[in-house]
Amino acid sequence: MSSTTRVAIDRHFPRSSGILFGLGLGGFFDGIVFHQLLQWHHMFSAWYPIDSIDNLAFNTFWDGVFHSATYLFLLAGLFIFWRSARRPHFRWSTKELIGTVLTGFGLFNLVEGLVNHQLLGIHHVNETADRSAWLYWDIGFLAWGAVMLAVGWTMIRRRV
CA–CA separation, 41 vs 49, rounded Å? Predict the structure, then answer.
């Protein structure tokens, strides 16, 4: 095979896999910690408050749909990572893995916070707090996401 017919092999860390891991982990954190352990909110709890068995069943079902979607993010990230890791001379990078996971987690918080909390208003971060404080919890969630995104992006972009 001549040098002009060789196919270039990408040996770089698969950033898309780390971002998908972060999106999935962000969703799992939200669902496990906020929905299940703290029970601060459920998927549609601002629209269907948990004040009846029917509303709890409705919200629990949609929490499960949400968890299924975050599981698919993790599976997609694992598939991309596995496929990339099988390449010869794959470039392993702890810094890029952590940076891309933080980027994905931060993206999850920002998109979920802006769309579900602010735009659609289907739930808010802490619905057990006084209603007048909901916006502050939502802003804190967005700030947490922005910090993770900024730190992750900085880790990815640095050429050290």
Answer: 9
Q: Is 121 left (phi over 0), alpha (psi -120 to 50) or beta?
A: left
Q: Determine whether 157 is exposed, middle or buried from the number of CB atoms within 10 Å of its CB (0-12, 13-18, 19+).
A: exposed
pLDDT digits (tens, 9 = 90+) for 10-43: 668 899 999 999 999 999 999 999 999 999 999 9
Q: What is the pTM of this model?
A: 0.87
Alpha carbons within 13 A on the beta-carbon side of 29: 18
- Residues contacting 77, CB < 8 A, separation 6+: 16, 17, 18, 19, 20, 21, 23, 24
First CA to last CA distance, the chain? 35
Contacts of residues 125-128 at CB distance under 8 Å and 24 or more positions apart, as own/partner, are 125/34, 125/40, 125/41, 126/34, 126/38, 126/40, 126/41, 127/40, 127/41, 127/45, 127/46, 128/38, 128/39, 128/40
Query: What's the pLDDT tens digit per position in 109-141?
Result: 999 999 999 999 999 999 999 999 999 999 999
Q: Distance from CA of residue 48 to its chain's centroid? A: 24
